[in-house]
Write a structure and sequence with these properties.
single chain, TIM Barrel, 27% strand
Length: 366
């Protein structure tokens, strides 16, 4: 690829710089220079660690579904992501992870980069399924050894209170797989024990976990008291604005995920979520009984949501790019600096998305 350039107000790890980025697949140089006041804002591409689907496709359906989701989310600013499997029998997980692995190893034009898989369940608490299918079970160390050996799974959500949960956290951490606490009914002490065992974050904070009570702090209390990282879904359905503000004040590197289902980027109607059928209606995604079932969120809308809360663009960007990249150890993503991948989002003066670049490639339709 020949070297390309973009000029504007550039967000670097050291703050805003007015100037010019030169790049091919990676950022080559950042040259300080004068730009017009109304020049575009150039921020790191969004890194989404929780994506069950998009564009009508559910990642449990295999390689082509993952590619459909990768194309859909790239158009809205996601430059790299973890497709998220859901609770399912092990043979179905094997097939889904194989499909994710194929996309991970061979990105095609127009796609966001797949960094690996987020295995959400099946080692979760059946009392906190949320919209997960009813296949929760106790950890299987042999299966996890096989999964870890494939190198596709980068992040696992589990409930530490299930039988063998703490041992599973240690096993995963030893294998270099990041662990989040989620779909959990653990009490505060158990959640703290999970952090001590090697868990590093919390999945869709506040949702599908034991809540904060002043005499029973639960998983939420452990997150607010001790968490460095946690994921949050700012879609207007999952978490009220006041709770989002409290979490951001308490958890230094709280980051944003979409938890986007096949309904993302699609009109109202019915869509797959593993063995479930979910309904998109008025911007939300629900099971038949009204339970929230992931979201239809895209990261450009998530950015707008954070700014509506009063966050400045640089802080909102870090929570959508740098912090999630750091959480999974990808210091070559989520930042604009020489040597990092040329993943960035270009915004106009009103902070509306006008261009997305993935590994130096402009994304059509962005």
């Amino acid at each position: 690829m020949s070297e390309a350039q973009r000029a504007g107000h550039i967000l670097t790890p050291d703050g805003w710089v007015d100037g010019l980025i030169a790049f091919d697949t990676h950022v080559e140089t950042i040259e300080v220079n004068e730009v017009p006041t109304d020049a575009p804002f150039i921020i790191p591409g969004f890194v989404d660690l929780h994506v069950p689907g998009g564009g009508g496709a559910d990642v449990m359906q295999g390689e082509e579904a993952v590619r459909t989701a990768a194309r859909l989310h790239a158009r809205y600013g996601t430059t790299s992501f973890l497709p998220a499997t859901i609770t399912a029998p092990e043979d179905e997980l094997v097939v889904a992870l194989a499909g994710i692995g194929k996309v991970q190893s061979a990105r095609e034009p127009g796609e966001a980069r797949v960094l690996g898989a987020h295995m959400e369940g099946p080692y979760i608490n059946a009392a906190r399924l949320g919209a997960q299918p009813p296949f929760a079970r106790d950890p299987d160390p042999a299966f996890v050894d096989v999964v870890a050996g494939e190198g596709v799974v980068k992040l696992v959500t589990l409930a530490p209170e299930v039988a063998g949960g703490l041992a599973m956290i240690r096993q995963l951490a030893t294998a270099g797989i990041v662990v989040q606490i989620g779909h959990s009914d653990a009490d505060y002490d158990m959640a703290c024990a999970a952090l001590d065992a090697g868990a590093r974050g919390f999945t869709h904070l506040f949702n599908a976990m034991s809540p904060l009570h002043h005499r029973a702090p639960g998983v939420v209390g452990a997150a607010l008291a001790h968490g460095e990282y946690a994921a949050l879904i700012p879609d207007g359905f999952h978490v009220a604005p006041g709770a989002m503000k409290a979490a951001m004040r308490s958890i230094p590197k709280l980051f944003i995920v979409t938890d986007a289902t096949a309904a993302a980027g699609m009109p109202d109607g019915d869509y797959p979520l593993g063995t479930h059928t979910v309904t998109k209606q008025d911007g939300g995604v629900f099971l038949d009984d009204g339970t929230l079932a992931g979201s239809a969120l895209t990261m450009d809308r998530a950015l707008a949501s954070l700014m509506d809360l009063g966050l400045p663009l640089d802080e909102a960007s870090r929570r959508m790019s740098t912090y999630p990249a750091d959480f999974i150890g990808r210091m070559d993503r989520g930042r604009i600096q020489p040597g990092a991948w040329a993943d960035f989002v270009v915004l106009d003066a009103a902070h509306r998305l006008i261009e997305v670049v993935v590994e130096g490639d402009p994304i059509p339709g962005s």
